[in-house]
Specification:
Pfam families: ABC_tran (PF00005). With about 300 residues, this protein is of the alpha/beta class. It has 11 helices and 14 strands. The protein has 2 domains: about 220 residues, P-loop containing nucleotide triphosphate hydrolases (Rossmann fold); about 70 residues, Alpha-Beta Plaits. The two termini are about 30 Å apart. The relative contact order is 0.14. It binds adenosine-5'-triphosphate.
Amino acid sequence: MIEAVSLTRLYGAHAAVEGVTFSVGQGEVLGLLGPNGAGKTTILKILSTQIVPTSGQARVMGADVLKEPDRVRALIGYLPEVLPLYDQMEVEEYLSFVAEARGLRGAQAKKRMDFVREALSLEYVWHHPIAYLSKGYRQRVGLAQAIVHDPPVLILDEPTTGLDPLQVLEIRDLIRQMAREKAVIFSSHILSEVEAVSDRIAILNQGHLVAQGSLRQLARAAGWRRIFRLRAKERLREALEALPGLEPVSETQDQKGLWTYRALADDKIRIEEVLETLKDRGLNLLEFCEEHPGLEEIFIALVRESHGAG
Ligand SMILES: Nc1ncnc2c1ncn2[C@@H]1O[C@H](COP(=O)(O)OP(=O)(O)OP(=O)(O)O)[C@@H](O)[C@H]1O
């Protein structure tokens, strides 16, 4: 449904996106994750025909963004970073204007208007001018305009920005629900969100695709299979930092004053080596356990690795 091949976008000599290749199938959600300036918005702008790629190709259901931008626009629902709202209009007026522009009429238009009003909890502000809406409501109206015409492809730039925690959960559910028969690509800074909503994750850093796949595939790509969690009365980070095969993730102190140190562990490192190192330094371990790495740990490792490589 969405295909990008060697996508590159230059701003002067600076590559905002370089050589990025990915695809999104029907019924699939691809989450774009990356630090500030990684190139997420640039990719979504190319897919939605807001800007053109310098080289490479992008297609939506076979329609090329350069050759058939109108066809692409008809197939997508797009939530941009900067919302396309008309402040002087009321919510209902604006959404019915969008629905009409998208070709919806009569009963079909009414059905879709009812759907977005309910799905995005817009009842309370339905007749309010957009200029008076809070940030969260503006974002919901932005989402409503992206989905009102029930497009087969959704392109969402930071869809939960400005929403309260309950709304965040509702919007995530809505995206998952809509994804059953659509292809969805979205960007987010929030790791837990990308983890919760995506079938596959594409990690970007400085315009490059660092890795993509399911969480399990990403963990494998990063070469980190396990997390070692160690508890002690003293800090452990310094003692273990030099040990090859361990990548520190966090060190925290609880209310009782005990320290918990978490590190990614590769396949080669053995817990005996860790214990010996601690013994040599006169440190006593209170607890040890192994966990599966989550997206946060994998993301840290992959982005650090790509900085090292770059
Ligand atoms: N119009 C522009 N002119 C020049 N440089 C730009 C322009 N738009 C984006 N860039 C640069 O391209 C790079 C990628 O930007 P982009 O907005 O795609 O990143 P992002 O991953 O969406 O970041 P954020 O999470 O901060 O929104 C950045 O270095 C940015 O400064």
